[in-house]
Automatic annotation (TrEMBL):
GO terms for cellular component: mitochondrial matrix. GO terms for molecular function: AMP kinase activity; ATP binding; CMP kinase activity; dAMP kinase activity; dCMP kinase activity; GTP binding; nucleoside diphosphate kinase activity; nucleoside triphosphate adenylate kinase activity. Its EC number is 2.7.4.10, 2.7.4.6. The gene is AK4. Signal peptide: none annotated. It comes from Pangasianodon hypophthalmus. GO terms for biological process: ADP biosynthetic process; AMP metabolic process; ATP metabolic process; GTP metabolic process. It is an enzyme of class 2 (transferase). Belongs to the adenylate kinase family. AK3 subfamily. This is Adenylate kinase 4, mitochondrial.
Amino acid sequence: MSKLFRAVILGPPGSGKGTISERVASSFGLQHLSSGDFLRENIAAKTEAGVLAKTYIEKGALVPDHVMTRLMLPRLEEMTRHSWLLDGFPRTLAQAEALNSACELDVVISLNIPLETLKERLRHRWIHPASGRVYNMCFNPPRVQGVDDISGEPLIQHEDDKPEALVARLRHYKDVAKPVIDLYRAKGILHMFSDTETDRIWPYVSSLLSAKIPTDLADAQRATTH
Ligand code: AMP
């Protein structure tokens, strides 16, 4: 069997991480594993971890490391025969260390977006608190303004996405992410991309992955995911 390929994508809220991840998944046939989506599935299914996680997500806080690792590592174990791109995990050094002991990564993509750009994007972000679904009034608006597409319930703007709290929140993200980035840089697998536009970053990410992912693997993965 060809070698499997494991990648992580790091980036602050509003960095375009979700968009890049979706493009990687469809262009290279990697499984896109999003910790946020996985948490939302657990919240919807009212699992023990989901019920616990919900209280943190509603406050805009990080879910504690032990809850995250207990959720994510078994999920990764189910994926031992697949190549994947992990999005949203690890977010802290403790999570990165837990991931290290579970598997070996090939590439870490880090999105380094100017603070002004992130502020502008997040100002327009609204969420549906019960499910954690996120909308952006500019790029990804709900079908009906102010209302969740699925439940029809009202959307709210996080205290944290309001302009006054945003800068503090992004700084906090940076502080928590720095040791994670440093760890991957020291391992020699970190690839950092900086720009204000996702469409300008994508060609660089795509050519990096084209060089790193063997073509036979990309073809095989695409065949199993479609
Ligand atoms: P996301 O969809 O990645 O923005 O995640 C939504 C929310 O889930 C975040 O605001 C956090 O509260 C929580 N979350 C997702 N991934 C993690 C993680 N690796 N560690 C802690 N909390 C997380």
